Amino acid sequence: MSNIDITLQHQQGDFALDVTFQTPATGITALFGRSGCGKTTVLRAVAGLLKADQGHININGASWQHQQHFIPAHRRPIGYVFQEASLFAHLSVRRNLEYGWRRIPKTQRRVKFDTVVELLGVAPLLKRATHRLSGGERQRVAIARALLTSPQLLLMDEPLSALDHAAKQAILPYLESLHDELGIPSLYVSHDPNEVARLADQIVFLEQGRVKAYGAAADLLTRLDLPVASYDDAAAILEGKISSHDHTYHLTWVSMDGGRVAVSREDLPEGHYARVQILARDVSLSLRSHTDTSIINILPAKIVDTRDISPSQVLVRLELLDGQTLLSRITRRSAVGLGIKEGMTLYAQVKSVALMS
Amino acid sequence: MDWQPVWLTLKLASTTTVVLLIIGTPLAWWLAHSRAWWKHIIGSIVALPLVLPPTVLGFYLLLLLGPDGWVGSFMQSIGLDTLPFTFAGLVVGSVIYSLPFVVQPIRNAFEAIGERPLEVAATLRATPLDRFFGVALPLALPGFITGSVLGFAHTVGEFGVVLMIGGNIPGETKVLSVAIYDHVESLEWTQAHWLAGGMLVFSFLVVFAMYHLEKRLQRTGH
After folding, report:
1. Which long-range contacts (CB under 8 A, 24 or more apart) does A177-184 make?
2. Any idea what the CATH number is for the domain that residue B114 is in?
3. Chain B residues with CB within 8 Å of chain A CB
């Protein structure tokens, strides 16, 4: 039973948390929402660092909390990465990494010390004192330290929020490789839509202590009834495979059953899984498939939903031939001009595609 | 030179420091972590010796521990000797008198660590006891050093409490400060000079060593 099943009620001063959601225990599930929406409280309850007033926490069929039953944090098979790396100041990097590792019986270790050290690129840091590390290095050590307990579930509380842009970009690939390489499912708390679009397989969307929606990331990010789709940098994510490389023009083609898109040349083998992000503002609509245009990504699509998001702009949700969804933000003038309505089929012209993994 | 008061003083200060570390550590931990409303009352009681004249403290201890006091009469009823004018009595008085000097630095150190490292340790499978000895104690080490040094030095320098409940029995309760007072009373200036000068040098060395140690610990990331 690879499943996370959570119901929690908790009162903390003025703040009331009342959440229920189920999500598959595979890949990364993002707990997403503005600060103060209760996402960290949920994470702390799953970790056992906080005892919610009421509810239950079932992870892969095991009960971690139910009525009087409460497993304390140190007996839960989790790894926890805090917002600040929180390395032990009295221990070297190596001793920090070994802290959890040594407390796991040998028979329960499912990851190799060297594998994790390698995966997060912390091998060169092992002998250093923790206060000699940069912010990004500290956080990588913290993630490695959590992984070394062979957790059944990795909990991450905005692990990138304390880092600058460059350090963030440097760590993201490590996070993306986690579930491919180690197969450890994660709950990932974030308020950053870009981060979520890039990492999440499932999303639990929280608002003021309640679950507004939950489900597959590709679906939730493009749902017009949720605020995410209206953000300026709203984006859809599409999944496909690397199909070919264009050496002349330095492009890599990503194919889906619903069409193909080109990204800048990437050194990935053909057939490799690819996840691409397409911003709503980069998608224009056309009634015919043009060839006399600079745009090379043209995907046939059907309109499934529309919504006016300002007096001048309309957001359109499109379904590709393979059922994946795309967002397009166009002017109201164009929408009226094209006669946009639900059920209509047309062509989505995608100006720019970003490959994420 | 009369070494007996010197040894007695060192013995008293060491015993007092050890006892204070044993009872002061859990007390400091509780004061740092408890959310009970009455923790501030306990905190104030612990800090009381800071402002109370030592003679007042000694006076009440004398009454309490004497044959007519609660503690004294209880001890006699179970067949024990009363504490005033014994070395054990001095230890009890010193422990109470020096309590804030040990508890306060350790409490501050525990508070400065905060909950986070302990939570991290919990998510890394450390049991509560394991967290205390493996994380809280080493991180609070500077506080323990400051507390021990202050507790020791403060006990060496006490006078009022000793005089009230210890008296002036050579080899049993006649500590340095009392000996100096004695020498001065009997106009033995040379002996007084030796002991007083020694104390001055000792006190300077203690304070100097403490600053030095704190600086070094700070540099290694504590």
Report:
1. A177/A119, A177/A357, A178/A28, A178/A119, A178/A147, A178/A154, A179/A26, A179/A27, A179/A28, A181/A115, A181/A119, A182/A111, A182/A115, A182/A116, A182/A119, A182/A147, A184/A79, A184/A147, A184/A151, A184/A152, A184/A153, A184/A154
2. 1.10.3720.10
3. 116-117, 119-128, 130-131, 134-135, 138-139, 141, 220-222
Give, rounded to a whole angstrom, the gap between the first and last alpha carbons of chain A. Answer: 28
DSSP B176: H
Please give the tally of structural domains in chain B. Answer: 1
Please name the residue that has the structure tokens 């408890």.
B34
What stretches of B35-150 adopt beta strand conformation (E)? Answer: none
Q: At what angle do helices B4-33 and B141-156 cross, to 10 degrees?
A: 140
ipTM summary value: 0.85
pLDDT digits (tens, 9 = 90+) for A163-221: 888 888 888 888 888 777 888 999 999 998 888 988 899 999 999 999 999 999 999 99
Domain that holds residue B203: 4-219
CA B39 to chain centre: 21
What angle is formed at CA A46 by the lines to CA A41 and CA A52, rounded to 5 degrees? 60
Interface of A with B (CB under 8 A): 47-49, 72-75, 78-80, 82, 84, 86, 88-90, 99-100, 103-104, 129-131, 145-146, 149, 155
pTM: 0.85
Angle at B128 between CA B119 and CA A57, to 5 degrees: 60
